[in-house]
Amino acid sequence: MSTPKEETPAAPIAQQTTEVVVDDTGALPSYSNFCRVTATPEEVILDFGLNPQPFATGRQEVKANQRIVMNFYTSKRLLSALGMTIQRHEQTFGSIELDVRRRAGSAQQFQTPTPAPATGPRGIVE
Q1: Residue 120 lies in a domain
Q2: Whole-prediction pTM value?
């Protein structure tokens, strides 16, 4: 009869951590309220711009002033990072409503009514 072999636990694999330090001293900030996403078989293209009349109807022309081109791996990591950021924001501040009409309607619900002007004699402060 053979005796069972004792298995020695495998040595724990040391996890290597990677720290990315970003030097953003030369980065130029810009604001965008418009983004067009297009793609080729190899890359995702993000065009950012400022839409001066985002609630207008009909044809609108928006000038793209920034273009970011990235591969699909980076795009998927960006998607994940944006998703986590939005999730944390909504947990803190509530749901982000994308429908402008609903958003405008809910803002009217939370406005405090303007008090009516006082009528009659006013008090005298000494």
Answers
A1: no
A2: 0.65
Range of the domain at 84: 34-93
Residue ranges of the chain with pLDDT lower than 50?
120, 123, 126
β partners of residue 64: 49
Residue 34's closest CA among 46, 50, 45? 50
- Tokens representing residue 120 in the block: 């009659």
How confident is the prediction for the chain on average, in pLDDT?
83
Say if 24 falls within a structural domain: no
- pLDDT, one tens digit per residue, over 66-94 is 999 999 999 999 999 999 999 999 999 99
b (16+ CB within 10 A) / e for 49-86: beeeeeeeeeeeebeeeeeeeeeeeebeeeeeeeeeee
